[in-house]
Design a protein that fits this description.
By secondary structure, the protein is an alpha/beta fold. It has helices spanning 7-15, 20-26, 33-39, 46-53, 70-77; strands at residues 2-5, 29-32, 59-62, 83-85, 91-93, 104-107. A two-stranded parallel ribbon has the order 1-6.
Length: 110
């Protein structure tokens, strides 16, 4: 199963010094680059900013693009394989990306 974490749960586990619980529960966890940016924000506690500069091997930073529904995925597939549109509407090169497929769980705060 692919496990994707949002900022808040990771942020608080870092503060509590218990991030290893994620590895024990899931093996590996994926976070979007946006989560890295939030964990590096100026107002973020320094211990969190330091932690994300050298993340553990079980934490993978990936670009995550999720079309809103299966119909949108097939619609996007008709466009050039050289680029896709990310959530911000900007085109990004597909080169170097890896598509994650399979069951997925999201760790997020309510």
């Amino acid at each position: 199963m692919i496990v994707i974490a949002d900022t808040s749960p990771l942020h608080y586990l870092i503060l509590l010094e218990h991030t290893e619980v994620l590895q024990h529960l899931y093996g590996s966890v994926v976070i979007p680059q946006a989560v890295v940016c939030e964990l590096q924000a100026e107002k973020t506690p320094s211990v969190v900013r330091r932690w994300i500069t050298g993340p553990p091997a079980w934490l993978q930073v990936r670009q995550i693009v999720v079309p809103p529904d299966p119909a949108a995925r097939s619609w996007l597939a008709r466009f050039s394989a050289a680029s896709i549109t990310n959530a911000g509407g900007k085109e990004s090169p597909r080169e170097g990306r890896e598509e994650l497929r399979g069951p997925c769980a999201l760790i997020a705060s309510p």
